[in-house]
Every structure is written in structure tokens, then in C-alpha cells.
Design the sequence.
């Protein structure tokens, strides 16, 4: 109750200052367009190495603007720190220099936006500073800022009111700036390798391309239920059929599933498809993308995640799933076996399975149980069983497995890729197997997409496809343990 009263007192005081701006100084508290010519980071880069005497001998005039985040002094002299999108810089304001303009900063509160014209100088302590010669009030903050020393104590507030998190926690601001640069680096890599960026429907009449529960909505004009997309895959492949040859899309995906440190109901992926590639080509592409993204945050492509150094500069390890299972559990799935034999192996090792699973499902469960958590450095795991890869091409030498891979780092999966299935007859059989799984209790299994099969019947060239989870990649490269810190506005309970 006392905190609420104190907050109300502060808000009341700020409104009084707002009124004083209007009545006493004839200033609009919420300002107008402002031209600045410099950002804080640029000024530091240019002048941090200049001496006090050099700046006095060759005056540099600048115009900056930003939010006031600290204020010291009173009377005739005030020091204040201002933050813009690039960083922070100190301003030195004297009544003797500013005259009637001085009350703007004297009456200002933390959080207010002010434009400052002035000259570059250095204080006796050697701190780069703008000596203000003119001030322009730009916007009044009517609520007090979060305490910069204690941040936002309520984690819920951090995610519900991201703007406060960005104001109070510079680490958050930097992380989301890096996220933007990481996505830009991926785009640059794809564009340089002749991929075309495209957009495919978010609202679809049939959800496909992944094993996941969709969000269902209703289109009033057509009076039909529609689905938020759970993947971009099937539409991007239609474009390969149409002759685009190399396409990619960075966009939101929606899955009506649980939420935890690695999952949010809406998230961002990058999916790409290249005609005449196989999964080996996509392995090379994947390494290139990860290295390009890592270069945003690390010159040597080494990043530290939760105290562990991850070396993205070395060639990524490439290992078959069955070999890894044998290495970690001692169980050898290379010999052909019946479902009953695979179930006995699972029983012996305490691996749980569903009654409708085939051998391939059990192999995949062994990988989850014994291998996944052990993959710390970048590892490309290939050779997934056909039962868990309904859209991947069967391996020519051993049709129990597919030409598919996933990339694992720090025990988590960051990408999924394969030589695409382009045989419409095989594709229909795979879809039908998925329907049978659904009837046996797997409510995430796909249905039959007749239009996609028809597209394949017109002919799709051999194709390599890739999907990367952008949010998880950002988490890795910025040393973040929860997806909520990698998405600006994560899904929250009302």
C-alpha cells in the first residue's frame, strides 16, 4: 500500500512538471520531430581517444537526442546521462551557457526525452561529454523508470512489459539488437547463395509439414475452419515444383502445444529448399548459416553458453544415429529386426514406447534417451528412421533409414533437414501411414494433403530442405536459457 501511494505521489509530481512545461515555459510536453546528427556509440568511437586539449582546440558541434537515464547535480550545473539506440553518453549542462533554456533539464525527470545541441569535451576525469548549448524537450515520462540498479524484480513484468525490461536492462536491449543482426546475417548468406526469399500462407485449409497440434480458427466469409501454419514446408516445396529452384522463408510458426524454456506457441523458423541438392549439400549449407550467424557475436566464432565454450569455427561432426546409439548405449540397431525384438531391447534398457510404434520409433526413442543430451559441440546426426521422417527420402542403401539429419549443440536440436521425398506414390503411402498412426492415438500425426501430392505428380526435382529454429539459435549465441528472453513478446497467460 505504501509503494502504491509513493508511486501515485511520483506520478502526481510528474504531471505537475508537465503542466509547468506548458504554462511556464510554453513547451509542448510531448514534442515534435527532431533532427539529430550523431549517435552515442559513434561519438565514443570518434572521440574517446581524443584529449581534452584536442577537443578544445578543434571544437566539434553535435546534435543528439535520447532518454535521460541519470541526473546529478543541482543549482547552476547538472550532469546527465542520455541513452539512444546505440548506447549512452554524458551531457554537461550549465545555466550560464543555456540561460532561459536551462529549466528544461533542471525540471526534467529520469525517463524524459530531450534533444541536445552542444560541443564535444572531456571532463577532468577524462569522460567524453557533450557540453550543452541548447536543449529541446521532446517527451515527458509520466511514470517513474525502473530502478536501474535492481532492474525489474518481477519476472512476469519483464515479459509482459518488455519496454520496461529494455529501459532497465541494457543486456536485453543488446540481445534483441543481436537477434536482428543474426537474422540479417542469415538473410545475407541465403541471398549470396542465390536463394529467393518468399512468403507463404499463415492461414491454411490443412495443417501439414510437421507433427504438431495446430491452432484452429474460423473464416466467416467462406464459413470454413482454417489452421495457423505449423510449418512452411509444403508450400515452399510447391514453389520448387513451379521452378523457383532455391527458396527460403523466415517467418512465424504456430503450434498449439505446451510452453517451457525451449517452447513458445508462436516462434520463428527459417526454412529453405534447393533443387538438385541432397542432404550432404544441406549439411554444408547449415554449417555456413551457423558460422555466418555466429560471426555477429564473435570474431573467432567461439561462443560461451552457460559456461561451456562452443566452437562453431571447426568443421561440424557428422555421425549416423545408429552409430551414436551403439556408442552411447551399447545397443546395435544395424541388424534387421522385428518390432518384438526392438521392444525387448527397449524393455532391457528401460526405454518406454507406445504400442503402435515400429522399430524406427524405438530407435528414435533410444537416441532421445541415451544420445541427445551428450552432444555438446556442433554435431550433425543423420540417418533417421523412415517411421519418424514422413517427408524425407529413403536412403538408397538401407531403406529403413532416410537421408535426413538434425544439428545438435549443448544437447538441444537447432535444425532439421533432409533430401526431400519427391516420389508422389511413396509420399501418399507415408501420409497414409501417418493417418493410421492418428487412428492409433497419435493426434500429432499428419493427414493426407491431396493438393501437395498432386503437385508432386507434376514432378519435383531432387531437392534438399532445411529448417532452423531462429529463437533457439539466438538463445545459443546470446547465452540465454529461456526462449522468453529471445522473443520480444512471448505468449503469457492473461
Sequence:
Amino acid at each position: 500500500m505504501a509503494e502504491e501511494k509513493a508511486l501515485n505521489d511520483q506520478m502526481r509530481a510528474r504531471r505537475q512538471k508537465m503542466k509547468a512545461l506548458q504554462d511556464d515555459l510554453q513547451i509542448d510536453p510531448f514534442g515534435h520531430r527532431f533532427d539529430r546528427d550523431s549517435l552515442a556509440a559513434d561519438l565514443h568511437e570518434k572521440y574517446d581517444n581524443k584529449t581534452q586539449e584536442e577537443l578544445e582546440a578543434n571544437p566539434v558541434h553535435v546534435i543528439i537526442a535520447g532518454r535521460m537515464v541519470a541526473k546529478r547535480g543541482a543549482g547552476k550545473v547538472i550532469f546527465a546521462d542520455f541513452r539512444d539506440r546505440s548506447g549512452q553518453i554524458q551531457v554537461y549542462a550549465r545555466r550560464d551557457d543555456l540561460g532561459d533554456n536551462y529549466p528544461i533539464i533542471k525540471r526534467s525527470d529520469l525517463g524524459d526525452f530531450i534533444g541536445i545541441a552542444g560541443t564535444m569535451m572531456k571532463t577532468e576525469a577524462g569522460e567524453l561529454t557533450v557540453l550543452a548549448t541548447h536543449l529541446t524537450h521532446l517527451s515527458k515520462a509520466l511514470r517513474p523508470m525502473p530502478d536501474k540498479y535492481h532492474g525489474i524484480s518481477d519476472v512476469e513484468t519483464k515479459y509482459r512489459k518488455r519496454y520496461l525490461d529494455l529501459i532497465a536492462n541494457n543486456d536485453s536491449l543488446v540481445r534483441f539488437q543481436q537477434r536482428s543482426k543474426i537474422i540479417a546475417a542469415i538473410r545475407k548468406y541465403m541471398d549470396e547463395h542465390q536463394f529467393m526469399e518468399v512468403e507463404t500462407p499463415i492461414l491454411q485449409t490443412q495443417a501439414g509439414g510437421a507433427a504438431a497440434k495446430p491452432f484452429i480458427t474460423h473464416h466467416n466469409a467462406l464459413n470454413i475452419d482454417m489452421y495457423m501454419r505449423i510449418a512452411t514446408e509444403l508450400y515452399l516445396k510447391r514453389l520448387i515444383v513451379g521452378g523457383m529452384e532455391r527458396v527460403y522463408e523466415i517467418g512465424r510458426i504456430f503450434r498449439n502445444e505446451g510452453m517451457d524454456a525451449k517452447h513458445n506457441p508462436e516462434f520463428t523458423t527459417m526454412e529453405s529448399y534447393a533443387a538438385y541438392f541432397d542432404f550432404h549439400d544441406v549439411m554444408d549449407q547449415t554449417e555456413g548459416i551457423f558460422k555466418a550467424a555466429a560471426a555477429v557475436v564473435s570474431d573467432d566464432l567461439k561462443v560461451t553458453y552457460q559456461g561451456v565454450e562452443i566452437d562453431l569455427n571447426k568443421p561440424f561432426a557428422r555421425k549416423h544415429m545408429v552409430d551414436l546409439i551403439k556408442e552411447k548405449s551399447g545397443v546395435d540397431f544395424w541388424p534387421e529386426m522385428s518390432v518384438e525384438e526392438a521392444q525387448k531391447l527397449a524393455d532391457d534398457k528401460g526405454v518406454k514406447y507406445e504400442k503402435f510404434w515400429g522399430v524406427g520409433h524405438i530407435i528414435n526413442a533410444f537416441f532421445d534417451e541415451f544420445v541427445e543430451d551428450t552432444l555438446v559441440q556442433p554435431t550433425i546426426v543423420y540417418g533417421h528412421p523412415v517411421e519418424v521422417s514422413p517427408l524425407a527420402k529413403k536412403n538408397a542403401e538401407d531403406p529403413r533409414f532416410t537421408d535426413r539429419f538434425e544439428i545438435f549443440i549443448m544437447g538441444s536440436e537447432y535444425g532439421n533437414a533432409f533430401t526431400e521425398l519427391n516420389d508422389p506414390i511413396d509420399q501418399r503411402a507415408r501420409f497414409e501411414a501417418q493417418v493410421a498412426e492418428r487412428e492409433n492415438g497419435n493426434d500429432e500425426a499428419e493427414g493426407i494433403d491431396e493438393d501437395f501430392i498432386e503437385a508432386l505428380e507434376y514432378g519435383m526435382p531432387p531437392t534438399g530442405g532445411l529448417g532452423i529454429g531462429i529463437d533457439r539459435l539466438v538463445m545459443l549465441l546470446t547465452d540465454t536459457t529461456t526462449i522468453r528472453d529471445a522473443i520480444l513478446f512471448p505468449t503469457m497467460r492473461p
The chain has two domains: 2-145, 167-316+378-485.
